[in-house]
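Hi R.,

Here are the chain sequences for the assembly we discussed:
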Amino acid sequence: MTSNTAGGPTRRERMRAETIAEIKASARKQLQELGPSGISLRAIAREVGVTPAALYRYFDSLDALLIQLCCDFYDELIGDTREAMDASPPEDHLERMKAWVWTFRGWAVGHRREFELMISYPEGNGAMSVDGRRLEQAPEDVDPITLKSLEHSQLCGREFAGFWKQTEREGGGTPGGPPMPEVSEALAKELQDQCGAFIVGEPVPLPWVFTFTSAWIRVFGLVVMETFGSLPVQENVDEYYKTQIMAMLKDFGLEV
Amino acid sequence: MTSNTAGGPTRRERMRAETIAEIKASARKQLQELGPSGISLRAIAREVGVTPAALYRYFDSLDALLIQLCCDFYDELIGDTREAMDASPPEDHLERMKAWVWTFRGWAVGHRREFELMISYPEGNGAMSVDGRRLEQAPEDVDPITLKSLEHSQLCGREFAGFWKQTEREGGGTPGGPPMPEVSEALAKELQDQCGAFIVGEPVPLPWVFTFTSAWIRVFGLVVMETFGSLPVQENVDEYYKTQIMAMLKDFGLEV
DNA sequence: TCATTAGAGTGAACGGCGTTAGCTAAATGA
DNA sequence: TCATTTAGCTAACGCCGTTCACTCTAATGA
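And here is the predicted structure of the full complex:
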């Protein structure tokens, strides 16, 4: 019998979850040792102690497994980042953004192969919006990696929007640093459509959006370059990254 | 007979070169259509009209072929960039740097798949120096892609160093924009070792090196993000890129 | 309790892949 | 002319992802 009157996971479901975890663990191990292209379904089956065909009971294809892996990695990254941010109080947006920036880099560098897989995956490389829509009502037809990466970037984006609101409340209308350059109507609209939805119902002003995207680009550039080994520094990377971030904050007129 | 008294390429050599070109063309076509992982040696052989094994007369392995491809792409990129820079006179370092920045981006975006292959290739992702040595005496033990990418980055680096010399001659000691943040001895030394060799015999001052690397990171970040589709803008990318570059130059205190 | 059923796993096969070894025939150069 | 180099072939090896038909077992419902 072993019926399931309590509504919890059945014995079969538990076994299944366990096997899935085992498969993913083996895949991740291969990823770390051999890189994205070194992952082999047959090798996973061998390690798990099962026939290759058996894996198809759990994943539709190798590709589906890799996508699932990527999503897990994003969850891990998002979890780490969120935790680090929560070490500072909710009002301290600046400190929380710094925590995000630092944790993002730390995770990527500490999990190079995983990060490599995440960004090099054909679909869903971190688009900052999905058809201009917000994340809340996730559309069905969008690949999950894009959604995850959106969620990740919004983690910092919301903090930035909060920072803006706070600054506005205190009387400062525009962000510090160099003035916003002139742009066409079309670009202005697109920028605000793409990034303006971090706060519900209230679009973030253009100069702030531009400031945010500029900062994002620098962080992304730094992290990708470090992961791919093309930074101009090899041994003092930690200090270099920190210096770059600090210089960036100063550029934007933020005391540090 | 068809002997080769003139010392030029023999008939066989010409045929060989032609076949190699044909193979590379087919590989590139597959790269563009299917992406880096879609390139198949057997498919190339099929298209060239030859047995898979025959290709091994021309390349040691598929990997070797891809490396050769990457080098060709770098040559193409470097050629385009150099040509664009030479539209401005040798003394106009600022304009030449702008040409470099713009052409770099244009090539990467116009050849996404090629660029993808170049940066995602395991070894040699654009390290900015090789053991601190200069490019002139290219060491044997370094993979060719690294060398090519070094050559590419030096194209802009030399111009930047020239810009510094010119500024110094005119009396300005430090670069414009925000002041150089304080860094440790070790980081300072590494930065100068890695990037200071653009001008023979004369190390570029630290603030200038820092300025250059900061700019490089922003350009690289922009280009990679655009190539991978993770820019916050999709339709007005040209204008966005230009705006970002202009804003960056302004940050560094350069009139535009 | 017992027949039914859904799920997990197997084994064999298909077609494709990169790569190697040994062969043949043609072009080359003395 | 003749030895040598070279391009190409065939066949095979051991991987790979994926599919299909099959078995066995454990949970299910009357």
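Chain A is about 60% helix and 0% strand. Residues 12, 15-16, 19, 50-51, 53-54, 57 of chain A lie near DNA strand C (CB under 10 Å from a C1').

Let me know if anything looks off.

Best,
T.
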